[in-house]
Task: inverse folding
């Protein structure tokens, strides 16, 4: 039996035989055991990551020394990412001031949800802190607006639709005047007809982009009956991929919401505070000893704070969590205590109960680790996922005999985000959140519940692409990631939950500058089709080939022209309030 989703690879792509659906009675392999050893690490090297110099169960790992980072694509970047993951999920050493794991310790700060102005507060970690989690992993573009994918696989941003004081949507007429929309009807060829208060068509109706410079990649959302449409600046309809929805919410097969939180480390927090105060002059994230010294001196002289591991440089974390009570064995996950929103539930709407939070134990299912390093002001963008989260789509890798091996997609098994043996449809959203109320609503024709989710490009390389200038093809790139995974996972001690997390890839630019695009004519390096299935679930694209979908730099690409990236590549930078 063939999986129809995995056969839709675009015009001219003849992958039908190659992508035949393989169903079997056993679970699919987690990670192939025989990749070409491009990026393998000896156990003795991994032992040096540990503070004791020996690999121990739940042992403390030091951060990679980002100050002395050696620009050695691609394996050096992948080694850096693996060590950083093991560090941030380590038990916190005493000099960090307490906390269960490093990300729990006072070295890190939670970001509050955005206030009415979009600003976020840095929340210090203290003893007994409960992280406050949100249910929306908002993917935002260069203008910090929600993103969707068009049917052509291009990224677009959704601008807020302006409304009048009475709540009616506003649109511009041919004369450029703002007019209230009373009703929207479907016209010829599916084009919307906007009616004014007089119930007559509004002449030349086109979107009003308040406080935004109109761009082809920015659209506004309007409702025609119960169906959303997206219009660009010329009032043309932009067709989005089936199942795409802004403000999407993800629910597991065990009926847990997926919760999210963003954190930054001490270097990031004091760098942000110092630049806001005008005490630090910098336009890019720290990459040199001089950069780091300015931040360290500012923290010491203003608050008598000394960074225990400043060589980690500036770090951002974005993490995804589910209720630990809904996973098969919580001991195989990294867990925290957290406060999450409380809902009154029906089959089609979950109503947020204001000012009520549930205290729960959560299990980590996905993590983005982003950090600056020597020569890397654009930061290195890496991602990890628990091996139980979702099945992989078909992919190839270069094996130890230097030939390509096909791994066919297989949904048989126990997955958090996919039903056992599911034949799809995949990656289709069933519910969204209303930002104005916090209520979760089923999409048209659905009830609230889990979708069947699959990782479209599991190792960050499109099936038919050369992902970066170093690798000849996707199988070689995939083998690099698989080989470093095997090194780390085989070396970690059984019983250490970190052994159950898979490194999916990392990205950076060739020159440390603003990302210009993947492929041979861009400057993006590493796994250039990278996405985390728990966070970019609906931005992965609908095919396993080519660069359809988005990657980290598809959204994080706001930077001033010049030799280095500015801090705008971080979506949170401009919105994080200083510490004091």
Result:
């Amino acid at each position: 039996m063939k999986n129809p989703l995995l056969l839709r690879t675009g015009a001219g792509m003849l992958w039908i035989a190659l992508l035949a659906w393989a169903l079997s009675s056993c679970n699919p392999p987690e990670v192939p055991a025989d990749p070409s050893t491009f990026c393998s690490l000896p156990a003795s090297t991994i032992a040096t990551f540990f503070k004791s110099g020996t690999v121990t169960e739940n042992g403390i790992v030091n951060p990679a020394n980002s100050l002395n980072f050696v620009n050695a694509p691609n394996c050096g970047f992948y080694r850096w990412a693996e060590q950083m993951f093991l560090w941030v999920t380590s038990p916190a050493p005493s000099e960090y001031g307490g906390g269960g794991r490093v990300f729990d310790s006072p070295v890190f700060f939670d970001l509050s949800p955005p206030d009415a102005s979009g600003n976020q507060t840095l929340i210090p970690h203290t003893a007994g802190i409960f992280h406050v989690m949100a249910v929306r992993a908002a993917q935002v573009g260069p203008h910090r607006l929600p993103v969707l994918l068009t049917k052509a696989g291009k990224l677009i941003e959704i601008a807020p639709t302006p409304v009048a004081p009475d709540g009616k949507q506003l649109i511009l007429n041919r004369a450029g005047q703002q007019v209230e929309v009373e009703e929207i009807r479907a016209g010829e060829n599916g084009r919307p007809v906007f009616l004014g208060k007089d119930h007559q068509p509004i002449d030349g109706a086109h979107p009003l982009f308040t406080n935004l410079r109109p761009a082809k990649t920015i659209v506004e959302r309007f409702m025609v009956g119960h169906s959303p449409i997206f219009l660009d600046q010329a009032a043309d309809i932009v067709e989005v991929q089936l199942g795409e929805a802004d403000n999407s919410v993800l629910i597991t097969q065990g009926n847990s919401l997926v919760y999210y939180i963003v954190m930054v480390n001490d270097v990031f927090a004091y760098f942000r505070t110092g630049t806001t105060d005008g005490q630090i002059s910098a336009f890019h994230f720290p990459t040199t000893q001089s950069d780091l010294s300015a931040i360290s001196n500012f923290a010491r002289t203003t608050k008598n704070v000394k960074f225990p591991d400043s060589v980690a440089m500036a770090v951002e974390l974005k993490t995804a969590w589910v209720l630990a009570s809904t996973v098969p064995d919580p001991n195989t996950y990294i867990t925290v205590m957290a406060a999450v929103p409380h809902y009154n539930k029906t089959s089609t709407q979950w109503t947020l109960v204001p000012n009520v939070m549930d205290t729960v134990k959560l299990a980590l299912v996905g993590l983005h680790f982003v950090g600056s390093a020597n020569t890397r002001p654009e930061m290195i963008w890496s991602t990890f996922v628990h091996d139980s989260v979702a099945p992989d789509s078909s992919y190839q890798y270069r094996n130890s005999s230097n030939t390509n091996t096909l791994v066919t997609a297989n949904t048989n098994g126990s997955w958090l985000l996919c039903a056992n043996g599911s034949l799809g449809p995949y990656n289709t959203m069933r519910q969204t959140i209303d930002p104005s109320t916090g209520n979760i609503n089923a999409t048209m024709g659905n009830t609230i519940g889990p979708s069947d989710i699959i990782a479209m490009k599991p190792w960050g390389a499109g099936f038919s692409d050369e992902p970066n200038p170093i690798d000849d093809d996707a199988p070689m790139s995939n083998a690099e990631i698989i080989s470093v995974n095997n090194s780390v996972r085989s070396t970690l001690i059984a019983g250490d939950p970190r052994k159950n997390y898979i490194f999916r890839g990392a990205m950076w630019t060739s020159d440390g500058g603003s990302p210009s695009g993947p492929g041979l004519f861009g400057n993006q390096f590493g796994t250039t089709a990278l996405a985390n299935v728990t966070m970019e679930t609906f931005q992965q694209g609908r095919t396993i080939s080519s660069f359809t979908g988005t990657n980290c730099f598809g959204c994080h690409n706001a930077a001033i022209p010049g030799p280095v990236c500015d801090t705008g590549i971080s979506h949170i930078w401009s919105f994080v309030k200083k510490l004091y």
In short: The chain has seven helices and 22 strands. Residues 22-140+249-575 form one domain. The mean pLDDT is 87.
